[in-house]
Amino acid sequence: MVHFPNEPLYQDVLRLVRLEGDIADLEIEGTIPAELDGAFYRVHPDPQFAPRYAHDQFFNGDGMVSMFRFRDGRISFRQRYAQTDKWKLERAAGKALFGAYRNPLTDDESVKGQHRGTANTNVLVHAGKLFAMKEDSPCLLMDPVSLETEGYSDFDGALTLPTFAAHPKVDPVSGNFCGFGYATKGVLTPDASYFEIDPQGKVVRQIDFTVPHYTMLHDFGITQDYAVFHVVPYVSSWEQLERNEPHFKYDPSLPFYLGVFRRDGDGSDIRWFVSDRSFCGCHVMNAYNEGTRVHLDLPVSENNSLPFFPDVHGAPFDPVAAQTIMTRLTVDMGANSDALTDIRPIGRSVGEFPRIDDRFAGQPYRHGWMLCYAFDKPYNGPAGPFAAVLSTLTHLNVETGEEQSWWAGPDSGIQEPCFIPRGPDAAEGEGWLVALVDNHITNYSDLCIFDAQNLPAGPVARAKLPIRLRQGLHGNWTDGSLLAA
């Protein structure tokens, strides 16, 4: 029998769950808002077998998809593995066959050339299917009600890319799913493609482009007119992979790039705006344009913000320079200069995992939410990633800079939130925020529901799970009108 390594990755706050099942009616504390009808989907990495390499990345676990179905003031729960090609091959073998994170050189010979994706990063319902996504592989389709896996899709042969976006945006005007793939011509290549899929599931646009260097092109922004890509100073090479080092490393000698092109064009108008500052940003809050002026809002840090991707020159991780502040980057497609100089903070709190009212994606907006670090608060639980300080939800008024927060207390951490509008015609930001709150002392998770513009009041209700879910990555809400009866 192969045992999981005695490593922090598999213990305490990151212990595995590996549990599939259903709960028809979760225990509720408080009152679930009666108008909530739909499902909150989220996903976490949860390896079904012990890894081939003990010091592997958290991000290399098999995708476990959770669905919280809201209806008639009640919430049911369903959880299933995303049955990727990797999952099926390893289930048949009874052991791990695929090696280290994003490193095909470490795979068992029997699976060379197979899709390595884990479908563990994001889940979103579009065109009647649940898209389960990981950026190094195609899109996996699942049934949004049963969570049964249907398999990888090339969308009737119209999208044959080997990779697919982990952070798509849905255009609220057209209803199109806007995404991208990178390393589209092979591992480590600088090639990328932007695409749009209409509400019926038809690919209606594809624009190929090249980034300044291969990097972790994890997220992006759309505006009504433009697609916006930020290239951070992470690098990789075959030499790195041959030494079985982390797939990405931070290179402070590289600048930060912002690429912009029109969504209705062919990519020939792409502009790469450059900052001489080597700062990092992972997740985008929102973007919008005012004519040719394009704004991108995301938390950025002055140095490497991800300690699991080490400095390429061996410099130690700097936790102060790694702190991410919500920042607005502005460029002008009508300007002659390609210098990226209009960079200003729009928030004060240090945090990540930003979210908006998705009905305003690509549009001017006021309201944003994010997870923030409670550096000045006590913590009673065990040490571990995503644990001791990621325990505060913050509402940011983007126009005024005003922030309001709720702290989960000394025993708990919080996972990425998601906004739910009060109704289809509700004003921006009028609605609810849902987030998993994990108690690291009792080892239970509660799905908490907040008034999105009154976070300090605390949860209006908690749906109480009889287990603690593993730290998740991302998720989304789907209105009940889009789900089968």
Q: How does this structure look, described?
A:
By secondary structure, the protein is an all-beta fold. The protein is 3% helix and 39% strand. Strands 20, 21, 22, 23, 24, 25, 26 and 27 form an eight-stranded antiparallel β-sheet that branches. Strands 2, 28, 29, 30, 31 and 32 form a six-stranded antiparallel β-sheet that branches. It has a five-stranded antiparallel β-sheet with strand order 1-5-4-3-33, with no helix packed on it. The chain is globular, with a radius of gyration of 21 Å.
Quick synopsis:
With 485 residues, the chain is mostly beta strands. The chain contains 2 helices and 33 strands. Strand 12 and strand 13 form a beta hairpin.
List the helices and strands and how they pair.
Blueprint: E1 21-23, E2 27-30, E3 38-45, E4 63-71, E5 74-81, H1 85-93, E6 122-126, E7 129-133, E8 139-142, E9 149-153, E10 169-170, E11 177-182, E12 191-197, E13 203-210, E14 221-222, E15 226-231, E16 234-235, H2 238-242, E17 249-250, E18 256-262, E19 271-275, E20 280-281, E21 286-290, E22 293-301, E23 325-332, E24 342-356, E25 367-373, E26 390-397, E27 403-407, E28 412-414, E29 418-421, E30 431-439, E31 444-451, E32 461-464, E33 475-479
Antiparallel strand pairs: 1-5, 2-32, 3-4, 3-33, 4-5, 6-7, 7-8, 8-9, 10-11, 11-12, 12-13, 14-15, 15-18, 16-17, 18-19, 20-22, 21-22, 22-23, 23-24, 24-25, 25-26, 26-27, 28-30, 29-30, 30-31, 31-32
- Approximate strand percentage: 35-45%
> What structural category arises from helix and sheet content?
mainly beta
The main β sheet shows up as: 8 strands, antiparallel
Name the helicity range.
under 10%
Low-confidence stretches: none
How many β strands by DSSP? 33
Estimate the global geometry from the Cα principal axes.
globular
Average of pLDDT: 96
The end-to-end distance, rounded to whole angstroms, is: 44 Å
Evaluate the radius of gyration.
21 Å
